[in-house]
Amino acid sequence: MTMNTHGRPTQPAAPTGHANTGEHRGMILEEPLIFERGTPGRIGVDLPPVPAHKSRLGSASRQGQIGLPDLAEPQVVRHFTRLSQKNYGIDSVFYPLGSCTMKHNPRLNEKMARLPGFADLHPLQPTATTQGALGLMHELAHWLMTLTGMAGVTLAPAAGAHGEFCGMAAIKAAIRARGEKRTRVLVPESAHGTNPATAAALGFTVDAIPATAEGRVDLDALKAKLGPDVAGIMLTNPNTCGLFERDIIAIADLIHGAGGYFYCDGANFNAIVGRVRPADLGVDCMHINLHKTFSTPHGGGGPGSGPVVFSKALAPFAPLPFVQKEGEACRLIESKADKAAGQSFGRMKAFHGQMGMFIRALSYILSHGADGLRQVANDAVLNANYILARLQDVMSAPFAGPCMHEALFDDRFLKDTGVTTLDIAKMLIDRGYHPMTMYFPLVVPGAFLIEPTETESRETLDGFIKTMRDLAQQAKAGTGNANANPFKQAPEHTPRRRLDETTAARQPILKWKPEAAPDYIASAAE
Ligand SMILES: *Cc1c(COP(=O)(O)O)cnc(C)c1O
């Protein structure tokens, strides 16, 4: 890997022979660290001299200069403006990532979350002054229970994975309350990595269930694994292959028959919301990612929020705190000593959950209504099937459609082309698209997982489909000799090209170290 003078990875020389430093492509500018831009003595603002004073910091007083770079105001403005433009996100472009990534955060939600009464709340305020907020939490809880048909809900978990932990902790508490010891959790091979990680984090052993050639749970394999030590199953529905588990009721009956609980990973609830109630499928608990189904910001725009719904059997074990309505007043049940706390397993986090996300999710639910939410699921599934149908003649789909909310392809269509799934992803960047989810689910070789969701227009989908068709056809038409393979050169239009992702992950360089820095920086960097 080539490093710049500051030890940061940089791109190898461009094929044209231009030096890379300072070479811009299109309007995407090379942007060094602001520390690398400073010139000693340059000044952006005049501050009045500090009046004479006696320092009272003692041994805590600063030993050297703080090492801030010296810059003029326009340099600062441009630097941070350019950084802000490096945000590639759903507000600027189509984002085909699979596994339930929202593509739009409605502005109405933002407006609601910014209402002063909500925005200025503090979690330690006396509940007499936060009745409106608690009422909102209670109403959101009501709608989540109504949409899933479940008996209880907690809003506390801070993400989907945290919700999984919560649900499995409730299952563990319920098993303990029965005076039993069950240590094994069944997890299908196609599961999101968080499922086995959650079970393991709670001390369960994880037992993988293979998938059928159809991409669904192998019922016979499941039956063979049942036993008195099975605590439950963690099953995603629709699953990570974008398919509905048709045998889900049989699976629920089998697991219940063996005395275990059915944890459903509900990250993909957006495909069935308003159409199917998980309670009717025999689910005992399920997390709902508000950032995947109810339009709250995802990823860097988060935070996430992962409420968990519970069946009657598990509801008494739900974590604290929760809101209970008593007459017109909302009361917060915060301690196990409270009679209303049931057999709660305790707290998951300091406060009540992600309040800002509750406001956004409820805004989304109320602005859609029952018919609108049903249409969300319909349109998400329709859009994914449109992509599957328009690409399956040039790409290869491992499972027969129709699919649910996402379209899955494998890399068989790339056989003998010298092009890989990763190469296509890199080419997509040059063509203006963030790559789809790739190499996941693990059970599908060279997977392409594409999820348009319900908010993309026909024109956007057609543009993406055209690009994918072009790339598939270009790969199949042959790429000339291996050295000139354009797929291996991509991306060409980004300031950085192919990154050494393994080294970046294993040995991240997180601190800027000046090489031959002026004294004032060197002393501060020590
Ligand atoms: C996203 C996802 C998770 C984890 O949710 P986070 O909110 O990212 O923690 C779990 N399971 C599946 C199937 C997912 O898609």
CATH homologous superfamily identity of the domain at 108-365? Type I PLP-dependent aspartate aminotransferase-like (Major domain)
Distance between the termini: 26 Å
The bound ligands are:
pyridoxal-5'-phosphate
Fraction of residues in helices?
Answer: 25-40%
Number of helices: 16
Number of DSSP strand runs: 14
Category from helices, strands and their pairing: alpha/beta
Kindly state the mean pLDDT as a whole number? 90
* Alpha-carbon Rg, integer: 27 Å
Strand order of the largest sheet: 3-9-8-7-6-4-5
**In one word, what is the shape?**
globular
Low-confidence stretches: 8-22
The third-level CATH topology of the domain at 108-365 is Aspartate Aminotransferase, domain 2
- What kind of assembly state do the chains in view correspond to? single chain
For the biggest sheet, the summary is: 7 strands, mixed
CATH class of the domain at 108-365: Alpha Beta
CATH architecture of the domain at 108-365: 3-Layer(aba) Sandwich
What is the H/E string? EEHHHHHEHEHEHEHEEHEEEHEHEEHHHH
Beta-strand content estimate? 5-15%
Characteristics:
globular; Aspartate Aminotransferase, domain 2; binds pyridoxal-5'-phosphate; seven-stranded mixed beta sheet; three-stranded antiparallel beta sheet; 33% helix; 16 helices; 526 residues; alpha/beta
In short:
33% of the residues lie in helices and 10% in strands.
Provide structural commentary.
By secondary structure, the protein is an alpha/beta fold. It has a domain of 258 residues: Type I PLP-dependent aspartate aminotransferase-like (Major domain) (Aspartate Aminotransferase, domain 2, 3-Layer(aba) Sandwich). It is 33% helix and 10% strand. The chain contains 16 helices and 14 strands. The strands form four sheets. Strands 3-9-8-7-6-4-5 form a seven-stranded mixed sheet, with helices on both faces. Strands 12-14-13 form a three-stranded antiparallel sheet. The chain has a two-stranded antiparallel ribbon with strand order 1-2. Helix 9 links the parallel strand 6 and strand 7. Helix 3 packs antiparallel against helix 11, helix 5 runs parallel beside helix 11 and helix 6 crosses helix 7. The longest helix is centred in the last third of the chain and has 37 residues. It is globular, with a radius of gyration of 27 Å. The two termini are 26 Å apart. 37% of the residues are buried. The structure holds pyridoxal-5'-phosphate. Pyridoxal-5'-phosphate binds next to helix 6.
